[in-house]
Amino acid sequence: MNNKFIEELSLNNWQPLSTIHYDGWILRFADGYTKRANSINPIHYSTCDLNYKIAECERIYSANCLPAIYKITPFVHPIDLDKILESKDYSLIDTTSVQTLDLANLNEPTLNSTKIVETVNAEWIADFCRINNVNDQNNGVLERMLSNIKTKTGFISLYYEDQVIGCGLGVIERGYIGLYDIVTDLHFRNRGFGEQMILSLLKWGKANGAKYSYLAVVSNNRPALRLYSKIGYSEIYTYWYRVKDSKTY
């Protein structure tokens, strides 16, 4: 499977609140919650004058009280867009590793203190926002985004002594389960809970037809990289963001 396919899945399964298709580029909007859902994705051929188009995208995002953010993958059009944006004083931030895993020889989880529901609910949202320090302003945005996902979803909660200490999301499409928003309570990290939660979520994905998995992790997140490597994930490509006003992020 080619890497662009994985990028397509990631666009489908982390849904914004609205999109604009502009001359081959996909402009995503979600009231500022996460760069992935509020960025310009230039993945199809562009025909307009590029300087005009970049200025117009800046105007559109500014009108929505957002900075102009470009997600720069190996699939951008035009291929020299990253250098062009750099020349226009766009800063590079958050280099990210996209990784995949074959589920054929998946290890069995040894903890069974997990619960997976297939529709997002207020309880999961509250636990996730508490653990991941999502502010109240974004709670409703997150719930609307997750409700927009149109493929099969699994919302996992990991319990320890009747307390939820970890949350995550798996989305299944075309034989792949994508992992999103995997987070463990700060006070319970480095104790193997994250690995058990991921293995449980992947087991659910496999039972529901997934043969492979993918995820994205920021390249300077050493603990997460070690964890995913231990499970068996390996990098297939990287991407980063170009931001007009890096102070916003």
TrEMBL record:
Pfam families, A to Z: Rv0428c_C (PF24553)
Question: Per the database record, which ranges form the N-acetyltransferase domain?
Answer: 115-249
- Please state what the protein is called: GNAT family N-acetyltransferase
Q: Which UniProt keywords apply?
A: Transferase
Q: Name one GO molecular function term.
A: acyltransferase activity, transferring groups other than amino-acyl groups
Q: Which organism is it from?
A: Cohnella faecalis
The upper taxonomy is: Bacteria, Bacillati, Bacillota, Bacilli, Bacillales
Q: Translocase: present as a keyword of the record?
A: no
Q: Which SUPFAM superfamilies does this one have?
A: Acyl-CoA N-acyltransferases (Nat) (SSF55729)
Q: Which InterPro entries match?
A: Acyl_CoA_acyltransferase (IPR016181), GNAT_dom (IPR000182), Rv0428c-like_C (IPR056935)
